[in-house]
Amino acid sequence: MKRAATVKLDDLISEIEIQMDETLTYINTRTGEVITLSSEEMRAAEDEEPLEIYPDWQRENIEQAIKIIEDEDEVYLNFTLRSEYREYEIVEEFIKTLENAEVREELFEAIQGRGAFRRFKDGIIEHGVEKQWYAFKEQRMRELVIEWCKENDLAIEE
Q: Could you tell me the strand order of the sheet in which 34-38 lies?
């Protein structure tokens, strides 16, 4: 059974790109709203501290966090996909698609060890495959989000 709201595919893809270690993302399944909260705001809601001790700009987010924590009707879906979105694996998949064996070898070497993403980005620019990379990455993220929405009975708007 599909949930009431429809969410925009591009909004969800953008959200994955900006998710940081200290943020959590939820979707309101009644409105389609995408909500991003910090771990600190979620802790504040769980600790039931008085809202007055927080700055005005943060109170609204803490109130939203309280709604999510107290959500007995399962209106909010956790859309924090850090564990499902593995950019390193996507980088490896992309490199395997490249036709030029020398470029593949150089990029595989570039992604080893510390500073791998920086060297990879320098390498794709140097070899002129930057546009291919971003198209590939976008497609993989689209597939991940579409699959997640199907699994969670959430309608998407493309």
A: 34-38, 23-28, 76-78
